[in-house]
Amino acid sequence: MPKKSKKKRTLQKKRQKRYEEKHVAVVVGFAVVFAAFVIASLLVVFQGGSGACAGLEKGRERDLCFLDLAMNLSNPSVCGKLSSDQKEWACLSDLARQRGEISLCDEISNEQFSAYCQVRLAVDSKDPSICEGVSYNKAKDDCFKNLAEQKNASSLCAKIEGKTRARECWENVALQVGDAELCTNIKGDAARQDACTYAVALENLDFGDCAGVFNESIRDTCYFQVGFRTLNLSVCDLINGVNERAACRFTVKSWRGDDG
How sure is the predictor about 258, in pLDDT bands with cuts at 50, 70 and 90? Predict the structure, then answer.
């Protein structure tokens, strides 16, 4: 009996193995057939769609047809069928964004278009390292500025070379995070630095921030506004101008409804 049982188990194992091998072969065969079907289907769609688009009269509708086809098939080669270089570049940029592939930006022959393609991917992925690789300086600055404002990352403002964009970056991030100290990074433009500090002080309703304003008239206005908005007479007393100080005290008292 034991020998027969052992022989029986051996036969069962062989049958099981043959079954598994056949099963694997069927699955692999099905996968190959399915893959071939998908590829063939895409080819038919591409050829059919491309042919349908090509059959349209040259113009906006034809370009939109090819653009939709490129996006639906995620196929950059279709972008080359658009009627102008600019439209082809825009198509490649949209595809790069859709696929998250910066290599598609490199296929754009125009340096400026290629650079802003990279900027879009950097902003989408919130990845400042992409900005480092942008060769077109204006786009590189825009890249750091957009990410700095998006992430409230003041350190990225320091990477901007253009004075105007750097200033705007410091202003916007300072206001977003409520840090008047960041305004001191605005160099060579005292008026804009004061305007930045003033804006943050009013946003924070913090008279301490007003002290950082260099221009006395603007500083007094800052104290006036914070004193009035917080109905705090002691802030009015920080105003240097006699008339302005009196006006602040009168306004605060009026709104508080007291005589003290």
Answer: confident
Q: Which residue has the higher pLDDT, 162 or 4?
A: 162
Tokens (6 digits) for 108? 């754009």
DSSP helix, strand, coil percent of the chain (3-state; round to 5): 80, 0, 20
Q: Is the four-CA dihedral 171, 175, 176, 179 of positive or negative sign?
A: positive
* pLDDT tens, residue by residue, 103-132: 999 999 999 999 999 999 999 999 999 999
Judge contact between 231 and 256, C-beta under 8 A: yes
Domain residue spans in the chain? 179-260
- Distance separating the N- and C-terminal Cα atoms of the chain: 113
Which residue type does 120 have? R
Are 170 and 154 in contact by the 8 Å Cβ rule? The answer is: yes
Q: In which band, very low, low, confident or very high, does the pLDDT at 174 lie, cut at 50, 70 and 90?
A: very high
Residue 123 CB neighbour total at 10 angstroms: 19
Number of H helices, E strands in the chain: 14, 0
Residue 77: partners with Cβ closer than 8 Å, 6 or more residues away:
none
Report the predicted TM-score, pTM, of the whole model to 2 decimal places. Answer: 0.75
Q: Which two tokens stand for residue 63?
A: 């370009």
Query: Radius of gyration (Cα) for the chain, nearest Å?
Result: 34
In whole angstroms, give the CA distance from residue 214 to residue 198. 10
